[in-house]
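Narrative summary of target 7.
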Amino acid sequence: MKYYIIAGEASGDLHGSNLIKALKKEDPSAQIRCWGGDLMQQAGGVLAKHYKDMAFMGFLEVLKNIPTIFKNIAYCKEDIQDFNPDVIIFIDFSGFNLRIAKWAKANGYKTNYYISPQIWASREGRIKKIKRDIDQMYVILPFEKEFYEKKHGYPVQFVGHPLIDAIENTPLQDNQTFRKENGLDAEKPIIALLPGSRKQEVQKMLNVMLSVKKDFPQYQFVIAGAPSLPNEFYAPFLKGDKVEYVSNKTYTLLKHSHAAMVTSGTATLETALFGIPQVVCYKGNRISYQIAKRIITLDYISLVNLIMKKEVVKELIQNNLTTKNLKNELSKIVDGPDRDRMLSDYKSLKEKLGGKGASELAAQLIVKNV
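Modeled conformation, tokenized:
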């Protein structure tokens, strides 16, 4: 069969790549065309558009790039018609994907959604579009099934979280080799900096993350470079105080870290699944943040806290993300009172996520329902 998959950012590329591998096992003759990234292409998808060309962050950034977005939408529709898939699979990226889904459903294509739009966080009214335009929904967070079925009467399948498989299936270097190949100190414990995958957020996050380095001289700070950004982008942040940088090795970096500072997003959950105590950071464009604050109805922004329904990791958001606060919170998890408590909560978190096999289960259901 023919599958058309649309993902629009780094995390979608990761989950999309594992879904492609699972689809090819389930359907060896599968033809897969996709919007995504290098990982989806390496897994066997034919890339129609790279997510680097679509990664616009925040309300203002989206407004500035409206002409490009509409060109992408038009091209996507044309490309789907040319490929004529048996099913279209949407991965998160709701602003773009729900527009394509409306058109696709009206034109007789089967529509599946893997990794739900976060309508439980904001703009809950989009459930009407999902009910109208999506034939099958496969969710990866335990509270999403209750949200869709009990609150909105829309049946979904909970398949578990694909990060569990992604982490287990990623080959990781041993500590000694990793440190030697990347010029890291052989003995100093590592504090990992995960500033995000988009230029705007990295620029906002890294300066404040690095501002606490002088207060932790016994640790080495290592920046996790995003695959979507070139190495030279990080060069200005590596000047002055000794700061290390590794490109496209986030999982190995996390495995060998002592603690982390993490920009809110999928990376908070990845860090937790590696068992690394963390402080969650977020600072957006001032106007975008004020708009978001008025439409987002959640008590927390990190997936760790949302899944556990309590504050497991400290969230420093917008004006609270200061050098003083970050220093204080980081001190608590490198050798302070919050470290053991956080590690204990991480174990409970992993149990809630449903175990291995999310990508395989999703692929089985997609093939079965086409």
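The two ends are 9 Å apart (CA to CA).
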